[in-house]
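Bumping with the actual sequence this time:
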Amino acid sequence: MDCVACGSAAVAERPDRTARGYRRLRCRDCGKQYNERSGTLLNHAQYPSDVIALVVLWRLRYRLTLRDLAEMFLQRGIVFSHEAVRAWEAKLAPELAHELRRRRHAKGGAGRRRWHVDETYLKVRGRWCYLYRAIDRDGHLVDTMLSEHRDMAAAQAFFRSAKAATGVTPDQITTDGHGSYPRAIRSTLGRRVLHRTSAYKNNRLEQDHRGVKGRIRCMRGFKSLASAGRFCRSHDELRNLLRPRTRHNQHVPASRRRRLHLRRAAIALAILETA
C-alpha cells in the first residue's frame, strides 16, 4: 500500500495495530503515519469494513429493506440504523459498479456482439421513468441506464454508454418496435449494425427484467433519479457477476453453483472493503 500523502512505495509496517485491528503503516520518505483504511471511503467509518461490505452486498443482492438489514445485524449484536445502510450504499455501490464494469470491459466472445435492448418502467418520485437495459446473446449484462424520457436522446445516450462499458461495437441489435431505435443505432453505432425488431425474439430480455423489478418491489419506489440510477446499475452489475451460467439455458449443478457464488461473492466483498 503506497503512502496516502506522497504516494511513495517506501512504506514500513508498524508492529502495533489500531483498536479495530487494522495495520499501522509509516512512510519512510515523508514520515506520514496511517493505517490500511486511510484514504479509502471507509476511513472514518465507525464499523469494521467487512461488516459494511456485507451490508452493502446483501442490500444490493437480496430483497431486503433498509430496516430489514438493521434488524438482521442486531441479532448479531451489531447496532446501526437504517439510515446508516442508506449512507453506506450511496458511498460504496458506485465504486462496486465502476470496478465490475471495468473488469468486464472488452471481454467475451462472439455472443457479446449480439445485443437485446429494451426498456422497463420504474417509479421515481411518484412518476414513471424508463430503465434501459441490454444483454447479449448468452444473457450477460451489456449495460443499464435510467432515463426520465423515452426518446432519441435517451436511446443515443444508452448506446454510447453500452459501447463504452463493453468496449465493442455489436454486429446485431434486437429491439421492440419503438421509433427512436433505428436512428439512434445508425448515429451512434454505425450503419453496418443489423437492427432487428421483434417482440418475440426479445423474450429473454423481458424475462431478465424480472430480476431488477423483483428486487425493487419491496422498496416502494425511489426518492430521486440519481439514487434510482445508482441502485439499478449496481444491482445489475452484481447480479451479472454472481450469475452462474455462461450461456442461455445452461444447466449448472448445485455444487458448482455454490462454489461459484462463494468465489464471486468474495470478489465483490473485497472490492467493497478496499473501496
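The C-alpha cells above came from a reply further down the thread. The chain is about 45% helix and 20% strand.
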